[in-house]
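Explain this protein:
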Amino acid sequence: IVPAKYRLSTSVSRLKGWTLKSAIVNGQDAADRPVAISGDVSDVVVTFTDRLTELSGMLETPTGQPAPDYHVIIFPSDRSYWVVNSRRIVALRPSTDGHFVTTGLPPGDYLIAAVADVDNDEWFDPAFLDQLVASAVKLSLSEGEKLRQDLRIAR
């Protein structure tokens, strides 16, 4: 491997019910942040888990009606994770009844917000996420936890 900084990722779509827990390289988790690799990868430890997190809820208008035309953005409170294609950042569209759900977020502290308009992949832009912080709801996910967080759009 050419010496450089790498972020390790994997697709476990064929292993339904499993997700990447960590990819430890030289004592650092390369699943979330780029890690310097000098060519020797003999000490890489990749761990998967079947103890998936689940975050669900309802998104409603100020009058309590479903809000399927909005996006739900879930992102880590730790700004160092605000990187392109982060596994800790999710953008969802609620179903017509306002329900949303995502599984497999790594355990940690998150913020969740609703937005009316968002460009494709804009949710990975730190400047965009920074605008959402003030109106976002804080939450924490533990390994295997199933959490419900309903949201109501402010007037």
